[in-house]
Amino acid sequence: MAEAQNIPAGANTTGSIAVAAESTVATRMSAPPSYDVADFPVPHGREEEWRFTPLERLKGLHDGTATAEGGVKVDISAPEGVTVETVGRDDTRLGRAGKPVDRVAAQAYSAFEKATVVTVPKETALTEPIRVGIQGQGGVSFGHTVFELGAFAEAIVVIDHTGGGVRAANVEYVLGDGAKLTVVSVQDWDDTAVHCSQHNALVGRDATFKSVVVTFGGDVVRLHPRVNYAGPGGEAELYGLYFTDNGQHQEHRLMVDHEVPNCRSNVVYKGALQGEEAHAVWIGDVLIRASATGTDTYELNRNLVLTDGARVDSVPNLEIETGEIVGAGHASATGRFDDEQLFYLMARGVPEQDARRLVVRGFFAELVQQIGLPDLQERLIAKIEEELEASVA
């Protein structure tokens, strides 16, 4: 498996199955964050933040021609003590975790009619997860959801996307001091769905945020997880698992902004690809500002290419403005099956196809285990098995 680590800015490594490149974080945005769509020019695909995205397949989300004539069915199951509210656009809790950073996110923020705010009171430790089911009913829809944890609260949130249609939505996670939040966002859309979403997390003093993003379905899925820190001692762990099939475009663009001293972040995303024109994009941006002394950060992206014709664009970016840090690094690797692993299994009597399945399951195992919910873990393992069956059919 070829590895790219600490590549000089602007370097390119190209091949039949993968592209890995790097540029500095500061050059990545063509416009500053804003709630106003007009502040973002219509992208043409030459912009740094849009150069990998098939704009013609976004169904008008990027140029303002998409109108909200569709809908989604939302089902929220929350344990006792959790407050679920439907609020208007003027609610002061909206937008606290961060502004939209591209035109689609701004379009989603400008177009939703009602938002959902889910609140876990301070010092409340939930023993059951908050489960949110979002089922697309066709057409175009926009949305906005806020999850807010009070000081020293603890919760697990599962957001499950299914069905079809075109969806643009922003999600906010606001963690009070000492709070602990684990979020699992599953994209299991129908094959024709389009989904663009910005996830903003604001991590309080000594708070812990864990995000697990799982992407299987959809024609085009473009997610933008972002982390900011509101106080020192915050920790963020961002995990991701994606399985990209023939013709699918799955794009994960991460940003961790270290502006506060003594905070930590760890990013691990892994993907498998199969089929002609399967395209996965992973962008990992980490910015350590001059004020963020004592930062400890690392990001890793690995991709396993199962068939010819697939393409990966993996772009780790690390910008450091202070030398007073604990550590910082990144790595990106893309390749085919490890021949030594296959040989080891086959030499012990395991048939080749079974050996391949075991290798892929092992590849994803550490990420699935981060979820901590046995029923969901079993479902995702079954989905991976289903994808693998398709690759050998």
Automatic annotation (TrEMBL):
Protein origin, superkingdom: Bacteria
Single GO BP term: iron-sulfur cluster assembly
Stored Pfam families: SUFBD_core (PF01458)
InterPro entries attached to this UniProt entry: Fe-S_cluster_assembly_SufBD (IPR055346), SUF_FeS_clus_asmbl_SufBD_core (IPR000825), SUF_FeS_clus_asmbl_SufBD_sf (IPR037284), SUF_FeS_clus_asmbl_SufD (IPR011542)
Transmembrane regions: none
Family membership noted in the UniProt record: Belongs to the iron-sulfur cluster assembly SufBD family.
Entry protein name: Fe-S cluster assembly protein SufD
Naturally occurring in which organism (per UniProt): Streptomyces taklimakanensis
